[in-house]
């Protein structure tokens, strides 16, 4: 059986939601395994040498890492669930484009906010790095808002793997002291997101 | 005709190489357009509101951005060129995984090195941020070296879109004062890369 490794509240949440959407739609079983992060004895180190989630182990033992690969791979397990789109279509490119933008720009913009120590050893300097990081992140949230203008979901008027992943970062914004009340359209989007059965089940599973 | 926008020496180089591999293999024409970056009157702003390369405009006018989407999309234009792999295969996931790792980790690690001003306003602090960034980048280059150990190319013993993109960042390392002589296997890999017709043609076109 396909295994998906996740950690509570991590960026693996998007893949977790896709896995639950797929299993709901098709009954195709995917085993979801919750692991701790940044502890040397976490079982994730036996599966992924970089110790990161999400990680997938396919039913014939191949290991897949990186959201940019895992989200498409899970979504392609059941094309009828329409979390992705056929090869060669503009829709498929647009969904992969969203995943790329979220992975590099948005997730990357959280790094100086959550882990300013990666950039400079001095604690006072880290505070400024975090502040400048929050300013940059807010600019990018405005880009997200413009890209979603007038839309229910990111691509093709249905919930896709792009949405599963976007919701992760909207849920993270309070960590950066960014209040979604500043962005009413995004707050409404996140309400739709949080109302999905797959999202509610994933939250409950990770909290347990 | 499909159009691909690139800028000299930018991260669009990987997509540029894929486009030339595809046209060499199949005669399928892709128009490559060189644009300046970070100048307000660059033609790229009319195509991509974020003013970034690579950007693709498909023959029916769809705009695609983000390397994570453009590299697969170009490679899928001609499956016989084998720059990518069929949907549902482990190889496809591995190629997309490389693209994701390069896009988020490796490209992201160049940001504090090339543009430390994005993180802190003070010039002295920026020097330390750049130094810490170079240390981090060197660690990631070691990860790349381990992933390539014993291999001619990144995935499946043939040149794929993952290699087209990896070469970009190996070519950038001198900008971060990292000498490839420290990494003999990677130096040999880059020699193979630079010897390809597609790479030589892309370098000449961008320099012209």
Please provide a written account of the structure:
Two copies of one chain form a homodimer. The first copy, chain A, is α+β, with helices and mostly antiparallel strands. Chain A has two domains: 2-83 and 198-207, 3-Layer(aba) Sandwich (Glutaredoxin); 90-196, Up-down Bundle (Glutathione S-transferase Yfyf (Class Pi), Chain A, domain 2), CATH 1.20.1050. Helices cover 54% and strands 8% of the residues of chain A. Chain A contains eight helices and four strands; from the N terminus they run βαβαββαααααα. The first copy, chain A, has a four-stranded mixed β-sheet, with helices on one face. In chain A, strand 1, helix 1 (13-26) and strand 2 (30-34) form a beta-alpha-beta unit. In chain A, helix 1 (13-26) packs across helix 8 (197-207), helix 4 (90-114) packs antiparallel against helix 5 and helix 4 runs parallel beside helix 6 (161-172). The first copy, chain A, is globular, with a radius of gyration of 17 Å. Chain A starts with a strand and ends with a helix.
Which descriptor suits the 3D outline of chain A?
A: globular
Q: How many domains, in number, for the residues of chain A?
A: 2
The chain pair forming the largest interface, with residue counts per chain, is:
A-B, 43 and 43 residues
Oligomeric status: homodimer
Roughly what is the average pLDDT of chain A, rounded to an integer? 96
Radius of gyration of chain A: 17 Å
Order of helices and strands of chain A: EHEHEEHHHHHH
Spans where pLDDT lies below 50 across 5 or more residues of chain A: none
Widest beta sheet: strand line-up of chain A: 2-1-3-4
Look up the CATH topology of the largest domain in chain A: Glutathione S-transferase Yfyf (Class Pi), Chain A, domain 2
């Amino acid at each position: 059986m396909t295994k998906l490794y996740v950690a509570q509240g991590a960026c693996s949440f998007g893949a977790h939601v896709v896995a639950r959407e797929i299993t709901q739609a098709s009954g195709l079983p995917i085993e979801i395994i919750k692991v701790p992060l940044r502890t040397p004895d976490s079982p994730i180190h036996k599966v992924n040498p970089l110790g990161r989630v999400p990680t997938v182990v396919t039913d014939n033992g191949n290991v897949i890492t990186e959201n940019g690969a895992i989200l498409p791979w899970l979504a392609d397990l059941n094309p009828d669930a329409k979390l992705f789109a056929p090869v060669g279509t503009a829709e498929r490119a647009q969904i992969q484009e969203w995943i790329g933008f979220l992975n590099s720009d948005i997730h990357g913009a959280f790094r100086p906010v959550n882990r300013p120590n990666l950039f400079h050893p001095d604690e006072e300097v880290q505070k400024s790095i975090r502040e400048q990081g929050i300013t940059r992140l807010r600019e990018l949230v405005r880009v997200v808002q413009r890209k979603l203008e007038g839309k229910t979901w990111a691509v093709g008027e249905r919930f896709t793997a792009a949405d599963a992943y976007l919701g992760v970062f909207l849920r993270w914004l309070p960590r950066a002291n960014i209040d979604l009340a500043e962005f009413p359209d995004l707050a409404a989007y996140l309400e739709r997101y949080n109302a999905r059965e797959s999202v509610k089940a994933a939250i409950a599973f990770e909290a347990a």
